[in-house]
Amino acid sequence: MDKTNNENLTLGQNFIKDSKLIPSLIKTAKIKSSDTVVDIGTGRGKITYELAKVADKVVSIEKDKRLYEEAKENYANFTNIHFLNIDFLRYKFPERGDYKILSNIPFNSTASFIKKITDIKNPNPPKETYLIVQKEAAKRFSGRDLVASLIFPFFTTRIIKKLDVTKFHPIPDVDIVFFEIKRRNEPLIVPAERLLFSDFLTYIFKSRSSDFYNATKKLLTFKTQKRLCLDNNISMNTMLREIHPAEWINVYKVFRKQATDTQIKVIGTHSHYKRNDSKLKKDHRTRNRFKT
């Protein structure tokens, strides 16, 4: 196995070895001849190649210089492929027009990639995203934690189907699925309030309390809490992780009507959390380098 392959395996990359799987996934995603599709982590270009036979335009993103050059050379005859040698986390999404994503991404990049795809700072997120990911990751982004609750008002998520692990190399030792993220035509929270909503939820989930009453008591009166519990079929003792994202939207809309000084308590919480999270990850990477 060459150096490039070794590097990609350490990134959690599992390559598709079944030639029939990619066209099948493209058909499942209903990619059309008028679509612009982004392929993240192109590798040697198998998905890019199949997409280029169907879509109007394909944007191929590959961080590894050798793989980028190889894919670019292999598919030079395709005039509808735009090759980019760049880290996806530094990629700037199109400012206008609809586009889709269909990719087999490194498993250990799933969280950072999906957070970028659904980032509140992106004014034009992809209309549809289709990713090959670990089942547990897909369940998390469709679940009831902070990340899933932040995504829910603006995107729908679902596991389309489980995939046969024997169609990949190396064979993953976890279940993998074809995962869909769709931008809502009508957001459940107006875009202008997305940052306040993110601050509100982050404030609650990152509090030292795990139940509804204690996590929200500094933002809502006891009377308001009781009414919200009644309206949303939850209790004061309900754990945060048990509350559906749709119910958090109801809670937020009541909070939004509170006095300005109450809202000020949460402002900046989401950005602060992201900075701290980024610092922790950077420190973790530094420690790992010193260990090797």
Quick structural overview:
This protein is an alpha/beta fold and 292 residues long. It has 13 helices and nine strands.
Kindly describe this structure:
The chain has 292 residues and is an alpha/beta fold. The relative contact order is 0.10. 41% of the residues lie in helices and 16% in strands. The protein has a seven-stranded mixed beta sheet with strand order 4-3-2-5-6-9-7. It has a two-stranded antiparallel ribbon with strand order 1-8. It is elongated, with a radius of gyration of 21 Å. Mean pLDDT is 91; it is low at 1-10 and 282-290. It folds into two domains: 3-183, Vaccinia Virus protein VP39 (Rossmann fold, 3-Layer(aba) Sandwich); 191-280. The chain contains 13 helices and nine strands. The chain has helices at 3-10, 21-28, 46-52, 65-74, 110-117, 135-141, 146-151, 194-205, 212-216, 222-232, 245-255, 260-264, 269-291, and strands at 15-16, 36-40, 57-61, 81-84, 100-104, 128-134, 155-163, 168-169, 176-183.
